[in-house]
Design goal:
It contains nine helices and three strands; from the N terminus they run ααααααβαβαβα. The protein has 228 residues and is mainly alpha-helical. It has two domains: 65 residues, no CATH class; 124 residues, Rossmann fold, CATH 3.40.50.1700.
Length: 228
Amino acid sequence: MLGHHYTQSFLETAVASVNAGCNLELSYGMRNNVFMRIPQALAMGNITLQMLRDRVRPLFYTRMRLGEFDPPAMNPYSSLDLSVVQSPEHRNLSLEAAVKSFVLLKNVRGTLPLRAQALSSQRLAVVGPFADNPRVLFGDYAPVPEPQYIYTPRRGLEMLGANVSFTAGCSEPWCKWYSRAELVRVVRAADVVLVCLGTGVDVETEAKDRSDLSLPGHQLELLQDAVQ
């Protein structure tokens, strides 16, 4: 509210928020945050102790229902480790969810799906800053798994036995430095080209907005060169 000029100070924001029914503040890592002004607002009479109790009660009720205060022995999830979380059953379920979440905007001449049995006889080019960079594949608020469980487009296709050639063209999503000659060399020798572009948390995330929807840096140029 302060950033939108609805209030003029953290104290005013705390008072307005609590009075409106807000009982959570997202200020992770901030020692100086809005709700630290609640004691001052209480002392000034802008909010009441009963109001604070009413705001806090559902928070602790939810935490108790979630078992946060139970002894560890009562928590069935405390014994889980990566052998369970990354079990074949869970990984297959993740694969199924990924496959079912794809959105196909256009499928000219029935190009997709690529048939796994035909990949060995085709030359594939996988290009772009998202083709083989595990770090940029995860969005905001997403847990990053162990490296051996991360499958980039390049790694996934190579595991299918495909004859894969690769070049990033540019090493990071901002794509400020672009190697056109290397991209053209790899693409010209391929039967099928997969161009992996995007933004990622380097470019946009919470509190990091953009003024347009254009691909960052030279990514559009990379795509146009690949198509040409």
